[in-house]
């Protein structure tokens, strides 16, 4: 039986008004603008776009402001917003090899074509709080060095080793093979790599980080090297049916990670390096790396490895990576469960009554037994 | 013509026109709404009909496994598109990332006008070339700033003994 309970409308209305007031905070402090969020909190914006699975900096900035900086709530707002829009179709696959690279590092090759380019990064910093940032901003742009670019081509590291056959080639399917889409069909198992990568690309950064870390600590070890991490702008092209050609929609920023891992080889295949792949919206290296490591560990079956760890369990990983679903299910526990709880309350009362009754009977039997024993003595 | 691979000059011409139109649409798509509006103001377009109202929707962006392998769905982008028809008959289209409907409309009108022989040269010279130049300059700045962060390794040479 389902019993609807009404009430609390006024309390809810007032709670929302109070949220708006608390969100604004002290009005003697200027309100945040969306431009400020988009420009100055770009990592938050990137995370919300990635986990919200919708690339739009302005919308992500609005979501962050509305959510008072709660990034999972903001990603939730993005997911909800996207359901209001029609789908025009699918883009052509982005070419990360043609990226306008802002950062590119490889932990496996010192001297590689295009070089090691650090770009904007927190790496090599001492993680000391910079109190200069706490001072009033005078509006001057920080000075940077520039240099004349020497080489423009920056081939992917994995393409370099591929020539020798030492690197596992990318899987290529017929272009007509349908590509799985989680926004069209709910996740089902077994999930192929296309669905796995889509799931991981919009998965929770913290969850993927923890799983990737677990593989490093021995739970399904894959011996990863960061073959390459690159970040920058890629063009998005869309084939417009009515025009008969692909139009360039603009550019988005993405981070790509190629993890290079061991492979013992098998009776059918010679030993070669295997790979895990990460691709995410914005500059989110931690997640791109984690995604690549988890992608690799989920390939255990295909590569003839043994399944021993949570990070290899496709169903476990993919079913729990989505923080919108996860937060929905965890946080729904806050909603009224009065009727469910009443039923449980009745049950526990009954169980306690039975428990006490049983104990009383046992005590009586024990007493009767010992009385009989005393009498016998 | 230097290109001897193609048999049919008409096809070449069409491919060239498509290439030029693609470039024009890409330049408009990459421009800010303010920049498109500023250029649009310099034109006096004829009357036009909206064949397709400016409309915002989603395009699912695809990546490839490992960078070059089979495609997978990465996530969506917002896209706004528009189609107009000028009273002189030309049909113009626009597609660009984001949600700006005015930019979509103005870009479609510019695309339509560009197809008029009497306007092609002017639009390329006064609108597309300056926008493209600005966009290329921005990319150059990124490249130059990035280049300054390139690592130069020193090899420490040890003695033989």
Automatic annotation (TrEMBL), chain A:
Region labeled Disordered — which residues? 162-185
Is Lyase given among the entry's keywords? yes
A matching Pfam family: PhnI
MF (Gene Ontology): lyase activity
Its keywords, alphabetically, are: Lyase
Q: Which residue stretches does the UniProt record annotate as biased composition, category Acidic residues?
A: 162-178
The molecule here is called: Carbon-phosphorus lyase complex subunit PhnI
Q: Which organism is it from?
A: Roseibium sediminicola
From TrEMBL, chain B:
Which keywords does UniProt give here? Lyase
Annotated GO MF terms? lyase activity
NCBIfam families in UniProt:
PhnG_redo (TIGR03293)
Give the protein's recorded name.
Phosphonate C-P lyase system protein PhnG
- Source organism of this protein record: Roseibium sediminicola
